Amino acid sequence: MTRIVATIAHARRASLAGQGVLCAPGLRAWAQRHGIDLRRAACEGLPVEELERIGDAFSLRVAAIARAEREDQE
């Protein structure tokens, strides 16, 4: 099984007008709230399973985008 990693680019795509994390300060606050090292996430990405465990709407959108992108590549 291939490991699927969500990136900052996925997070940007998950940000919808009026919903989710729309700016860098918002992304930093979200990461801090969930104990995520944003520098590590920016460099290495986050496994989608980690985002799914968080379970908030934004995390689930990011994970879904990363999974869909992987499916499109296969």
Structure in a nutshell:
This protein is mainly alpha-helical and 74 residues long. The chain has helices at residues 8-14, 24-33, 38-44, 48-54, 57-73; strands at 5-6, 46-47. The protein is globular and about 35 Å long.
Kindly give the count of domains: 1
Helicity level: 55-70%
- Rough outline: globular
Instruction: State the major sheet.
Output: 2 strands, antiparallel
Count of DSSP-assigned helices: 5
Terminal Cα span: 13 Å
Evaluate the radius of gyration: 12 Å
Uncertain runs are none
What does this structure look like?
By secondary structure, this protein is mainly α. Helix content is 65%, strand content 5%. It is built from five helices and two strands. The chain has a two-stranded antiparallel sheet. The longest helix has 17 residues, at 57-73. The two termini are 13 Å apart. 20% of the residues are buried.
Write out key terms for the chains shown.
2 strands, DUF1127 domain-containing protein, mainly alpha, globular, 74 residues, single chain, 65% helix, two-stranded antiparallel sheet, 5 helices
Write the layout of secondary structure elements.
Blueprint: E1 5-6, H1 8-14, H2 24-33, H3 38-44, E2 46-47, H4 48-54, H5 57-73
Antiparallel strand pairs: 1-2
Helix pairs in contact: 1-5, 4-5
Organism: Luteimonas terricola
Protein name: DUF1127 domain-containing protein
